[in-house]
Amino acid sequence: MFLSSINTTIDTIQGAKSTFVKTFVKDESLAKTLQAFVEAQTAFTKQAAQTSFDVGTKIATEASSFDYKKFFATK
Disulfide-capable partner of 31 in 5, 20, 25, 48 (CB 3.0 to 4.6 Å)? Predict the structure, then answer.
């Protein structure tokens, strides 16, 4: 659920960039290059968000299953 909200936000921002390029960049070769750049940014950002989410989930899972009493018990 959270990740889908992040992806929606990414799509919205990148869609605005794409629309800007289509609207204001009149040189066809430059427009194609900029569109490819926007698409690469989109893929990278979504992968970074996925990786961050996975790391956060793993840390939360490990932290919640850690036995603090056993770890800090005096011997």
Answer: 25
